[in-house]
Amino acid sequence: MVAIPGKTIAEKILSAHSGTDAHAGDIVVADVDFVMGQDGTSPLAIRALERMGVDRVFDPAKVALVIDHSAPSPLEGVSALHTVMREFGKRTGATVYDIGCGVCHQLIPENGHVVPGDLMVGCDSHTCTYGALNVFSTGVGSTDGAAAMASGKLWFKVPETMRVTYTGELKPGVFSKDLILYLAGQIGADGATYMALEFDGPVIEALSVDARMTISNMAIEVGAKAGLMRADAKTLAWYEGRGERKPNPVDPDPDARYAREIEIDASSVGPQVAKPHSVDNVSPVEEVEGTPIQQGYLGTCTNGRLEDLAIAASILKGRRVHPDVRFIVAPASRRILLDAIEAGYVQTLVEAGAALVTPGCGPCVGTHNGVPSDGENVISTANRNFKGRMGNSNAFIYLGSPATVAASVIEGKITDPRRYLG
Amino acid sequence: MRFEGTAHRYGRDIDTDVIIPARYLNTSDPDELAAHCLEDLDSEFVSKVQPGDILVAEENFGCGSSREHAPIAIKHAGVAAVVAKSFARIFYRNAINTGLPIFESPEAVDGIRSGDRVAIDADAGVITNLTTGESWNAQPFPPFIREIIERGGLVAYAREKVSRR
């Protein structure tokens, strides 16, 4: 008898959603459980639907449009695009999350739209975030998104999987952001192109769901199609009170076949910083310590969750942001903002000198709410530091954990957060 | 499909933020998007590029955001085709869906400099540097992808298929 190798999480979810016995390399047409677009990409998807002659969505309960990239609108042209989205929602019954609700990648899981075992596509590259919740979620363009909104189906090439196992334990002052930046530095910005990543090991198990989402969020920064994790008791507990849908956790088979396996000893990883202008230009914080900064940013789909605000607040409690630094904070959603108010984090951050802005994406994508000036350095918790990313191609963006950002805005220069955390 | 034009060559990891920065996504008008194509990388690109020219780049072209505005901006700037050592995944699909021809050939990229005249025979999968006389093989498109690109993108292709039923 010929042994048939087991399957990865990606192969299992794509098999279940296509009704086939799918293996890496196969092309399948699969049913999607949810389709999302944001205000940068939805207008093109709506136009593609119009050109297709379609004025409905396959299931209004399974489509959401999120106004987060420029929220509230900074420009007339953007306002017009937002109107197109709102009218589409009214016409088709698709949910529209309007300004103030938050970042799409927080809202979709937070509202229980996707659960473990699901397959979803979003017109935003960081749709891979929900891989941390055992969802095969991936970013697509507006035309693919429109096709999925119209039909509930899309074609997929079943990806090979690279397994990344984090062993050891996180040292104080080191966070999940440092783990994924370290990986990006190791394998490069195209190290996992067209592959799914599976993150596993005792370090992942020990992380909170918030912290896991930071890792899956950045799977795209190494070119990956998805950044999957197993669902465990923490995942299931996270879903309590978040909607009616029942999770259907998918584990990889013990004999699953991986294209590549990487083991990283987390005990040896310190705080990491990605330097301008690419996410894989990573070095230990010690190498960039002392670089002056004029702006700090805490937020985004990478690090705008409650735990991130808590980490920053713990460092900034009773301290002040450096007088030459603007510190911008954007919680990832209204719910997180409310929870952070209740926990006192907002009070702490604002008292320290933070400028709180509407939950959304603005500063990270350079649409508004904090465009840096020529020659300025920014330390940010975001996922991208491309040239021009924050709206000015003559600025320099450094990426780090919420702790690294908090320590740096106090000192006015890039700072090792371990000075502030035991 | 055959293309011939002047090469504009750039490096690796050309991301969609430099192809079309998010600050210009306040419009869906292809020509307005094209007016800002690659401006953060090369502010003279838009004034240099002539209809039919070929964009050449190294690894991981189109990495980053899923914005379909990126292939649209390139196409409407006048670029006939992109040749790169490799493409990022989302961009690859978006290029096909919007009808922008793309070719993977590390050898061709190594053999082309900015300003060279380049010809691409898409059906045969042959890229030729007319300036140096060298030529290379690239994977030709499967027929259905060629048809999508010839129709100008997935929507026009699908509409035609549906109306023929």
Topology:
The complex is a heterodimer of chains A (422) and B (165).
Chain A: H1 9-18, E1 27-31, E2 34-38, H2 42-52, E3 63-66, H3 76-92, E4 95-97, H4 104-110, E5 119-123, E6 136-139, H5 142-151, E7 153-157, E8 161-167, H6 176-187, E9 196-200, H7 202-206, H8 209-217, E10 226-228, H9 233-238, E11 260-265, E12 272-274, E13 282-284, H10 285-288, E14 295-299, H11 300-303, H12 306-316, E15 326-330, H13 334-343, H14 345-352, E16 355-356, H15 362-365, E17 377-380, E18 396-399, H16 402-411
Parallel strand pairs in A: 2-3, 2-5, 3-4, 5-6, 8-9, 8-11, 9-10, 14-15, 14-17, 15-16, 17-18
Antiparallel strand pairs in A: 1-7, 12-13
Helix pairs in contact in A: 2-5, 6-8, 12-14, 12-16
Chain B: E1 2-9, H1 16-19, H2 30-34, H3 45-48, E2 54-57, H4 69-76, E3 81-84, H5 89-97, E4 102-104, H6 106-110, E5 117-121, E6 126-129, E7 135-137, H7 143-151, H8 154-164
Parallel strand pairs in B: 1-2, 2-3, 3-4
Antiparallel strand pairs in B: 1-5, 5-6, 6-7
What does this structure look like?
The complex is a heterodimer of chains A (422) and B (165). Helices cover 33% and strands 18% of the residues of chain A. With 422 residues, chain A is of the alpha/beta class. Chain A folds into 3 domains: 135 residues, 2-Layer Sandwich (Aconitase, domain 3); 108 residues, 2-Layer Sandwich (Aconitase, domain 3), CATH 3.30.499.10; 148 residues, Aconitase, domain 3 (2-Layer Sandwich). In chain A, the strands form 5 sheets. In chain A, strands 4-3-2-5-6 form a 5-stranded parallel beta sheet, sandwiched between helices. Chain A has a 5-stranded parallel beta sheet with strand order 16-15-14-17-18. The longest helix of chain A has 17 residues. The radius of gyration of chain A is 21 Å and the shape is globular. The mean pLDDT of chain A is 97. Chain B is an alpha/beta fold and 165 residues long. Helices cover 33% and strands 19% of the residues of chain B. Classes of the chains: A alpha/beta (422), B alpha/beta (165). At the A-B interface, helix 2, helix 3 and helix 5 of A face helix 5 and helix 8 of B.
